[in-house]
Specification:
single chain, about 475 residues, Rossmann fold, 2 domains, eight-stranded mixed beta sheet, 17 helices, elongated
Length: about 475
């Protein structure tokens, strides 16, 4: 939304959907195809209605019958149709046809594009809201390669017709953004919600690729989705590629570790390895289908004010280098994280954490917004046979704090005792005592001061990465004593 002020009045300068479609149609150079499966030809309809579509639309099609779709785009190994692979095959096939059927000699200035989506809307029983993949392949220079913007969306409305209209608006915003906002991808993401609200649609995965986006880090684009309230959580793989959480978590056992990881320490890895060994030995847990997730909350990233993108990428780079999947979430409370996981799996879930984290869970101030208070939160947190794997804390007086002697508020003692005695909180026994004196805040301070002595407190290879990439403020010129 673009706002300007005239006197005391705010004036919305955001072009209407018709204006966006018409601007595309009246651009003599933009020319391409639409392929939409599953929710009607809702996007191309906007361009037909706007007028002047003959100069923009080379072809519009839908392959609703599965056999027709398979014949055109091929058969998916998993037999599904609403997938990222399906969308990419659609983009590949349709762009290949454009190149074959339209001569570059005849159209030297044309900017070719293909827009595609594969979507399922809400079912008749209104049990599944619907979701889909939406993408565009386009060029902004006829002599340059193609660029892709690919999104995964989840519908929130309870009516198929409304979802179709939402899809048409989103598609138009995407095409308009691709051609007129490609040089500001963060703004492009915001403009996807022009004439839409977050009550209508969630965008939980986005990936940019191609020559005009070669300097775009898709992890930062994922961060924008959470920061802008477009989704509550995003995930990326060890390769730094944004992945769909639903695909990664579906029917999986999940072990989650929350932290600042600023930087990741040997304590974090000791916690992870020990908790995973214990979790894998639980009933109904299959280690081969267990996903270990390192989670960073948005509130953690904002702990020192506005989000520092370089700091965020430093944390992400190190976790990815260690081979871990990273979740960035807007779940300040643990029960919301567990609810999120539970929407994708009915398998067992575990949380690995330190003593301070567990004590914080039993702080009533985090649950005042709930009508049922802390009891409601704990009903959501522990309703699924969830376990907490607790790493001990070396206190300032050098005493060891674990599940047996940690202190919660007096009003919470009986509640804590209940979960403890029912085996929902278990101590990690095989921890490395030599690591208990390691704290990430101390390591960070030494890095900021360009000191040594912290290198053996982080996992193997991490110190070298921090120094070579100058992460967390490591200075380019070290003192002579280093």
């Amino acid at each position: 939304m673009e706002i300007t002020h005239k006197g005391d009045k705010e004036i919305d300068l955001t072009p209407t959907i018709k204006q966006k479609a018409l601007r595309i149609n009246l651009n003599d150079d933009i020319y391409g195809t639409f392929a939409e499966i599953g929710a009607g030809q809702e996007t191309v309809r906007q361009f037909f209605r706007a007028g002047g579509a003959s100069g923009t639309i080379a072809k519009a099609m839908s392959a609703y019958d599965k056999d027709f779709s398979d014949d055109i785009y091929g058969v998916e190994k998993d037999g599904r149709y609403v997938t990222e692979d399906r969308l990419k095959k659609m983009l590949d096939h349709e762009m290949d046809l454009i190149e074959k059927r339209l001569s570059r000699k005849k159209h030297p200035n044309k900017l070719f594009f293909t827009f595609a989506n594969t979507v399922t809307t809400i079912d008749f029983a209104k049990q599944f809201k619907g979701h889909g993949w939406v993408g565009i392949r386009f060029q902004i220079d006829p002599n340059q390669g193609y660029n892709d913007i690919i999104l995964h969306v989840r519908f929130k409305e309870n009516d198929a017709r409304l979802q179709q209209e939402t899809l048409g608006i989103l598609g138009t915003n995407l095409i308009y953004g691709a051609f007129y906002k490609f040089n500001t991808p963060k703004s492009l993401l915001k403009y996807l919600y022009d004439h839409l609200s977050q009550d209508q649609l969630e965008i939980d995965t986005v990936n940019f690729s191609g020559p005009v986006f070669e300097h775009v880090d898709n992890r930062l684009m994922s961060l924008q989705l959470v920061k802008n309230g477009m989704t509550d959580a995003v995930m990326f793989s060890p390769e730094g590629i944004n992945v769909l959480p639903a695909t990664q978590l579906y029917k999986k056992n999940i072990l989650a570790l929350r932290g600042s990881f600023r930087p990741v320490t040997r304590v974090n890895i000791d916690l992870y390895k020990n908790a995973l060994d214990m979790f894998a030995n639980e009933k109904r847990v299959n280690r081969d289908t267990t996903e270990v997730i390192f989670e960073i909350t948005l509130s953690n990233l904002k702990s020192e004010g506005e989000i520092d993108e370089a700091d965020f990428l430093s944390r992400a780079d190190l976790l990815c280098a260690l081979g871990h999947k990273v979740l960035i979430s807007n779940f300040k409370e643990y029960y919301r994280l567990v609810e999120y996981f539970s929407s994708y799996t009915k398998q067992r879930i575990g949380l690995a954490m330190g003593v301070n984290n567990l004590v914080e869970i039993f702080d009533e101030k985090y649950y005042r917004h709930l009508s049922g208070g802390i009891l409601e939160a704990f009903g959501k947190l522990f309703f699924k046979d969830l376990k907490v794997y607790l790493y001990p804390l070396l206190a300032e007086d050098h005493s060891l704090k674990d599940s047996n002697n940690l202190k919660v508020h007096p009003r919470m003692k009986e509640l804590y005792k209940f979960f403890k005695e029912n085996g929902r909180v278990v101590d990690i026994k095989s921890y490395d005592p030599a690591l208990l004196g390691i704290f990430s805040r101390d390591i960070l301070q030494k890095i900021n001061n360009n000191e040594t002595g912290w290198e053996n407190q982080v996992p193997d290879g991490i110190a070298e990465l921090i120094k070579s990439h100058k992460l967390f403020g490591w200075a380019s010129a070290a003192p002579a004593s280093v």
